[in-house]
Write a structure and sequence with these properties.
This protein is mostly helical. Helix content is 68%, strand content 0%. It has a single domain (3-113), classed as DNA polymerase, domain 1, CATH 1.10.150.130.
Length: 117
């Protein structure tokens, strides 16, 4: 099986929708930008020869992050990231190792996935 076909399934498929189902749906333009940013991040991860499970995990966390903050990529700020991590720790009672993985996924996304001006 080719890596491209595996990535296309994971990049376009949001995971854990039941936890964020009460949030409003994003506009199609914003969705396309987020999807393109996730695809860009996945390509960089593959070029770095990161394990496929890590790519899947990072894409999953970024899909959840997108659903949580409900903002365009231009409006990302540290407050949204801190609120997301606080929500994971307090409300979902997530383990520290998982929180660290989410933070690393968000950090990597901000460094590689966001479009440059």
């Amino acid at each position: 099986m080719q890596v491209g076909s595996i990535l296309s399934r994971w990049v376009s498929k949001p995971i854990f929708l039941s936890r964020v189902a009460n949030h409003p749906v994003l506009t199609t333009d914003v969705d396309k930008l987020w999807k393109a940013a996730r695809e860009n991040m996945a390509k960089v991860l593959c070029l770095m020869q990161v394990a496929l499970n890590t790519v899947k995990t990072y894409i999953t966390w970024m899909s959840q992050f997108e659903k949580y903050i409900i903002k365009a990529l231009d409006n990302l700020d540290t407050a949204g990231i801190i609120n997301n991590l606080s929500n994971l720790a307090a409300k979902r009672k997530m383990a520290f190792a998982s929180q660290s993985q989410v933070l690393n996924a968000i950090l990597f996304f901000c460094l590689t996935g966001l479009p440059r001006p």
